[in-house]
Amino acid sequence: NFLDNHDVGRFLFFKNDVAVLKNALVFQFTEDGIPCVYYGTEQGFSGGNDPANREDLWTSGYATNGDLFQFMKKLTKLRRTYKSLTRGELKFTWSTDDVGAETDAGIVAFERSGGDAGGSYALVVLNLNATHDSAPQSGTASMKTSLPGGTVVVDVLHPEAGTKTIAADGTFAPSLPPSSSSVYVPQAEVAANGG
User: Fold this and answer.
1) pLDDT at 192 over 90
2) DSSP tag of 27
3) Whether 137 contacts 88, CB under 8 Å
């Protein structure tokens, strides 16, 4: 799975928005398959069509303290820590066609669990809407998860946000800011992995 490579313009060339790139990276690092990262994405390279997309890495100073580098480092750590993100089966739990002012405009969500992931579980929620907060909820319908009601979850991408609880009927409708993502894991699993 790749976002850009040596044959096409870089992601930031087509969409010069780091928040949108981060959303794309969350999807790339949490979907089925192995994320293949083209060198320089972590440096924010934004070259156009070949050969402009083949910037010299050595002139960048290869900073490891930059925002994108640190974000990708965090995603890599999450993949190593939570087995469901590399081995779990993928099941979409919410996807919308809404793109305007609707409550769920831009929301895509999927679970990773089962298969050879053992008991590991992750719920990935992305808000692709760039203009307002959105949640996997429409009218009286909310996203149904496979987690039992009362399960406490942590957004391991943003652990500072604290915990949330799955409703008694298994539904969950977290509100996400524009162009952002969350990766929810049961609190018990976070604790078991030293988090």
Assistant:
1) no
2) H
3) no
